Amino acid sequence: MFAKLLLVLAAVCVSIAHAGLPAFGPITAGTSTVKSDVKAGQTGLDGLNLQLNAPFKIDDYVVGFRMALKSVLSSKTPLPDSVFLKKSVATPSPLDGTATVDTSVDLATKVLSADATWSAKETDLSLTASANSVDRVTDVGISTRAKIGPTKTGISANFNILKHKLAAALKVDYADTSAQVTYDTVAKDPVVKIVQKIDGSNSVSPVVSLKTLAQSYGWTRVLPSGGTLETTLHLHDKVAVTWKDRGTNGLWTTKLDVPLEDTRKAKVSIGHEFSY
Question: By C-alpha distance, which of 124, 175, 182, 188 is closest to 158?
Fold first, then answer.
């Protein structure tokens, strides 16, 4: 039934997109985005992945649709790839907090997916759950944070029911230093990451696997424009560079992966998220 409701919303979203906002009800357009990705070695439509994300707020609901450029150009009557609906409500005592449900329907497969989150008002406790109409409940999670003096501690855990995989993380922040340990029951590989701020613009972040001893060393620089430049050396593997810069027309993301053994196999990708 709920999937049918979202399918009806798809038609509403399409009419809004083509004919403008209808006259009934308080409807406001949200921040729509267009995401484009250009990958090295590809040309034409195969090299351009253009995604449109268009939300609209109707009363306390946020509804919208997502479309791909390829779908628009390959069909005489293009329809959204998926439609979504999001709703947040305050929960009463003794569960003071906010509950949010974010649902979407893939119009090709008719699969309904839902993500639910509850966050406590007075504490930093958060509960999450994910489900879909095919696999039922797929993930459940919990996270909490605490502060003792100048030290901040965060603990999170997520259980993937389909894979029987439990993933957990422990993070401790003190002054300009952050330490995090992650572990899951499938890889069984504790990974330790340290982030050390050098100054207001630079930080370094070594990462080591306690199982395989794989290591990486990262350097992040905040640019004067407000963007970031992240460079990571994966020992015996590659150098990865990510440059993010937010301009007047949206966020630019440029990624460069250079294998250490053969630099001729370097890969470049450029993404642009237009906001309007």
Answer: 182
Contact predicate 13/56, CB 8 Å: yes
Distance CA 128, CA 105 (A): 19
- Residue numbers of the domain that contains 81: 1-110
Residue 221 belongs to some domain of the structure:
yes
* Domain count within the chain: 2
**Which among 113, 115, 101, 30 has a CA at the least distance from the CA of 64?**
30
Q: Identify whether the C-beta of residue 103 lies closer than 8 Å to the C-beta of residue 90.
A: no
Q: Nearest CA to 49 among 65, 64, 63, 36? A: 36
Strand ranges (E), the chain: 27-29, 33-39, 48-58, 61-68, 82-91, 97-106, 111-120, 126-132, 136-148, 151-160, 165-174, 177-184, 191-197, 202-209, 215-222, 228-234, 238-247, 250-259, 267-275
Among 60, 93, 110, the domain-final residue is 110
> In this structure, is residue 30 part of a structural domain?
yes
Gyration radius of the chain's alpha carbons: 22
pLDDT in tens, 18-55: 444 433 345 555 555 655 555 544 444 444 556 777 78
Which of the listed residues 80, 95, 110 is the one where a domain comes to its end? 110
CA distances from 103 to 31, 123, 143, 145, 258 (A): 18, 26, 22, 27, 38
CA atoms within 13 A on the CB side of 15: 9
The pLDDT tens digits for 47-84 are 455 677 778 888 788 888 888 766 666 666 677 889 99
- For 207, phi then psi, to 5°, come to -130, 135
State the greatest distance between any 2 C-alpha atoms of the chain, in Å, as a whole number: 62
